[in-house]
């Protein structure tokens, strides 16, 4: 094992972190962390048995170049996920409000959107947006109002297609989170606001949403974690995010063990940080609910 760790430039660092996670902390989260480290430790040490770690060794010019290439993909992954989440928050909030509307058609339309996005696989949605949606737009008359409004979709880039698919998918799940948060506000406070002469939208903005935010924030961060994981599907349409860049390096170096092990560790670090943020928000904001 010592020889393995010597070959792997990240072996000693990972071993120290794994041992620290195994011996520190108490409670359910600490047990989950220990189990995750034990599950990951065996394949990682097996991966260190290979002799190809020089391709991601920061001490060499080749390794540093490959790491920089991968890190650029990590930035694109986080940027895509964050932008998609911002759009999804707007979509989800509007959908949640529409589902509690007095207009039946609006409720039915928003409900149909939520059910469609929750049942349709994200990968299928991504392929449809990138390959099929531009064909529909190209079929419109060039001088029509629809083409002037949607003409930009005819030349969708992989980033734009992934952004649309992720936002539509996450927006459906966030709408349920937002609706639960809005309905969790006591009706007595809504009735008190209306008795003071506040309209429906003023009550929503000043009374309901500020209180619902405490319930919505932790699961929203959890949805961001799912969006980061789902963004790896964008590699199938040519977006040069983290997974795609690792695959491109693998086709050049023929080192899948080292590159995909490092890819798994990169996602692990990103998602563990976001998971800790989610639990911190849950402890901080959940006490006030």
TrEMBL record:
Name of protein: Glutamate/aspartate import permease protein GltK
Compartmental location: Cell inner membrane; Cell membrane
Subunit architecture: The complex is composed of two ATP-binding proteins (GltL), two transmembrane proteins (GltJ and GltK) and a solute-binding protein (GltI).
Similarity-based family: Belongs to the binding-protein-dependent transport system permease family. HisMQ subfamily.
Position of the signal peptide: none
UniProt keyword annotations, A-Z: Amino-acid transport, Cell membrane, Membrane, Transmembrane, Transmembrane helix, Transport
NCBIfam families with a match to the protein in the record: HEQRo_perm_3TM (TIGR01726)
One GO term describing the cellular component: ATP-binding cassette (ABC) transporter complex
Keyword Phosphoprotein on entry: no
Function comment: Part of the ABC transporter complex GltIJKL involved in glutamate and aspartate uptake. Probably responsible for the translocation of the substrate across the membrane.
Domain ABC transmembrane type-1 residue range list: 74-278
Membrane-traversing stretches: 35-56, 76-98, 119-137, 149-174
Matching Gene3D superfamilies: MetI-like
């Amino acid at each position: 094992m010592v020889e393995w760790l010597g070959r792997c430039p990240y072996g000693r660092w990972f071993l120290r972190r794994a041992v620290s996670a195994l011996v520190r902390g108490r409670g359910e989260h600490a047990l989950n962390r220990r189990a995750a480290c034990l599950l990951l430790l065996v394949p990682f040490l097996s991966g260190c048995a290979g002799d190809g770690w020089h391709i991601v060794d920061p001490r060499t010019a080749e390794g540093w170049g490959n790491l920089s290439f991968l890190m650029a993909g990590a930035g694109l992954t986080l940027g895509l996920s964050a932008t998609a989440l911002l759009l999804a928050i707007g979509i989800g909030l509007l959908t949640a409000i529409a589902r509690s509307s007095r207009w039946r058609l609006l409720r039915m339309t928003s409900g149909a959107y939520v059910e469609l996005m929750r049942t349709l696989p994200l990968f299928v949605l991504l392929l449809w947006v990138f390959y099929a949606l531009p064909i529909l737009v190209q079929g419109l008359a060039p001088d029509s109002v629809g083409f002037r409004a949607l003409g930009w979709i005819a030349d969708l880039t992989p980033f734009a297609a992934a952004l649309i698919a992720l936002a539509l998918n996450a927006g459906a799940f966030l709408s349920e989170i937002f609706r639960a948060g809005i309905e969790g506000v006591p009706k007595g406070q809504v009735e008190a606001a209306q008795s003071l002469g506040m309209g429906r939208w003023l009550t929503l903005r000043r009374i309901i949403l500020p209180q619902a935010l405490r319930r919505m924030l932790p699961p929203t961060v959890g949805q961001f974690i799912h969006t980061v994981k789902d963004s790896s599907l964008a590699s199938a349409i040519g977006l040069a995010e983290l997974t795609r860049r690792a695959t491109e390096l693998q086709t050049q170096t023929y080192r899948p063990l080292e590159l995909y092990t490092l890819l798994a560790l990169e996602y692990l670090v990103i998602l563990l940080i976001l998971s800790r943020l989610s639990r911190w928000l849950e402890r901080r904001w959940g006490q006030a609910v």
